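Entry type: protein chain
Record version: 2
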Amino acid sequence: MKNFVSLVKFSHTLFAMPFALTGFVLALTITGDIFSVWLLLLVLLAMVTARNAAMGFNRFLDRDVDAKNPRTSKREIPAGVISAKGALVFVAINSLLFLLAAFFINDLAFILAFPTLAVLLGYSYMKRISALSHYVLGVALAIAPTGAFIAVSGSFHLAPVLLSVLVLFWVSGFDIIYSLEDEKFDKANKLHSVPCLFGIKNALRISWAGHIMVLPFLVLFYISVNNSDNLLGWIYIAGSLLFSAFLVWQHLIVSSKDLSRVNAAFFTSNGIASVVFATFTIADLLL
């Protein structure tokens, strides 16, 4: 089990899970529905198994490429810790558990679970096709807040959709930063990324532009939630400012001449940023 937890980088659930919980609490607040522990557990199960399936399939599909890359050659499959067949079984089990969780949530969640799974698994092919792979990953994680909202309400609402767009720009921006270290390797192996297509300096500019796009959606989300009732106030604003500060910080510590702090920008900055944003937003919704 420990090896499979490492395979899917379980600690990286810090990126999407806080936004899913935000969508969940937002739905309870807007609809006035009674909190259900069972429903929360189903949402958490859906989140974890969906991500496990996506990451497991990505590691399976990239096993040959990972074996060639010094940065990834020690990952579980190329290192022989987990077999390719074992990884596929893991993906299949988690995919079925995800669909099962969605089935017990509600009809709309179950219907949308199939295209969601297609996006999550399909992302793994994108680096072989297009530099838009960063944005497909953004879409994959952006599903979380809207999906959690639908789990509670059984319907769509503008506010979680705006939050999902915010997540899309945030994730694609930091994934571009994360891919900077592999620019030469990706070119040599005919893989696609923004750094490969535009160079490291321009890739940082594109990442920065995407993160700037997060700012208006922080405002639009605030307006949308407060459209019918003043559910968000100064606590949300403080959390948004801190979230924005972490976005700025990661661009300050990474430059085209110094990529030594890419991991700090990728995981530390964004992991803390997502938790901070969710904590402040949820607190404001509940208080």
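Comment: The mean pLDDT is 92.
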